[in-house]
Write a structure and sequence with these properties.
394 residues; alpha+beta; 24% helix; globular
Length: 394
């Protein structure tokens, strides 16, 4: 099918076709409707300027800056594109480099396709998107469900204004609202489908309430560690939302709701000292870190770095009780690491226990876990081949 979208630039059209072809040849199974949506929604209209990494800096990248071919290739690569750093949008950064933490991005198309496929959007379905971002995903939802059936919300007025304008430029007019995504969109509920493009530790109750019975939610679940996961939940007649974790790892930026947290303090210089056989770098392994965060408090934060000689340091901090723990590799070919813990708890102990349990369970994959959310609590569960079920509170 020939793509359209008001584009007369053959290079951009060919780039879009190439992106869809590469997605289809890779690990994503594209239905004809999904392929049609990606072919007919021009990604470059939603990310005219984005940041590219340059060491510790982020440089704005736009087509007019010089190498137009390189810009097109980046836009239609199967990669996430950072659009905002510490609240500064790439379009507002001028030509200067910035430093900080990415706060908004355009998700890699293959991950978007996986999530949309799991959402199973049919024409006429009422859809709520939490996290408008650039508006690109909302445009795809409009192609799948019909623009009149799509509601998208974001806490950033800067982002919703830009997304609304770009959607309108393609003749698409979904409801675009500036609001706290944790509250959903109660004025437009119920929804047949709910999708979040930001991560949460637990599924917010309003999302479950606003999902129609039999409806589907696709939600990135993630604590403060790297190991995010995607949950596909179905709303049951008793009000429970239940389902499975998808195989695809996903580390979406967290839902911004309520006051921003202060930056975690540096790791302790003094405190209780001991040795551990487990390097802090084990938390860089996404196959384990999603499991590790089930054993840590929901507010536990992590900072980590690797020195030029390869020595790894991880710092864990729990703002609830002020506990801080630093784990530093010995280096020089010596195995293990030194642990320094200050405050009431040694935060590395639950990670060690989690690692032992993970190995004892033969390193279970994320897609073998089920999720259940009720008014009484939310849990992740894994049932062994022998029939024993292990359960963790989210």
């Amino acid at each position: 099918m020939k793509p359209h979208g008001g584009e007369g630039d053959g290079e951009l059209v060919e780039a879009r076709i190439g992106m869809v072809r590469r997605m289809d040849e890779g690990g994503v199974v594209l239905s004809s409707r999904m392929a049609e949506a990606f072919l007919n929604v021009p990604r470059h209209r939603f990310v005219p300027v984005f940041y590219r990494r340059d060491g510790e800096r982020f440089l704005p990248c736009r087509r007019a800056d010089g190498d137009a071919g390189a810009w097109v290739a980046r836009v239609y690569a199967d990669e996430s594109l950072i659009t905002e750093v510490d609240g500064l949008h790439a379009e507002d950064a001028g030509g200067r480099a910035v430093t900080g933490v990415p706060t908004s991005s355009s998700t890699a198309p293959s991950l978007m396709a996986d999530m949309l496929d799991a959402l199973d959007v049919e024409p006429g379905a009422r859809v709520l998107e939490i996290g408008t971002g650039t508006g690109y995903n909302a445009a795809l939802l409009c192609r799948l469900a019909g623009a009149e059936n799509v509601v998208t919300v974001d806490v950033s007025g800067r982002l919703t204004a830009a997304a609304r304008e770009r959607l309108d430029g393609l003749g698409l007019s979904p409801v675009v609202e500036t609001a706290d995504g944790a509250a959903g969109a109660p004025g437009h509920a119920p929804f047949d489908r709910i999708i979040a493009t930001c991560s949460v530790r637990r599924v917010p109750a309003p999302w479950i309430d606003q999902c129609a019975t039999g409806g589907i939610m696709v939600v990135p679940l993630k604590g403060t560690l790297a190991g995010g996961m995607l949950a596909r939940l179905t709303k049951l007649p008793d009000g429970t939302a239940a389902g499975h974790v998808l195989h695809t790892p996903a580390a979406f930026m967290p839902l911004l709701s309520g006051p921003r947290r202060a930056q975690a303090p540096a790791g302790p210089q003094d405190g209780r000292r001991r040795e551990t056989a487990l390097s802090g770098s084990v938390l860089d392994d996404w196959t384990f870190s999603f499991f590790a965060q089930l054993h840590l408090g929901p507010d536990t934060e992590r900072d980590h770095r690797r020195a030029a000689d390869g020595t790894h340091t991880t710092v864990l901090y729990d703002p609830g009780d002020g506990s801080r723990t630093r784990v530093t590799d010995h280096g020089g070919g010596r195995p293990g690491a030194a642990v320094t813990a200050a405050g009431p708890r040694d935060l590395w102990e639950p990670v060690e226990r989690a690692h032992r349990r993970w190995r004892a369970l033969n390193r279970p994959r994320r897609e073998w876990f089920t999720v259940r959310a009720t008014s009484r609590g939310q849990t992740l569960a894994y049932t062994t081949p022998a029939g024993r079920t292990h359960t963790w509170e989210l």
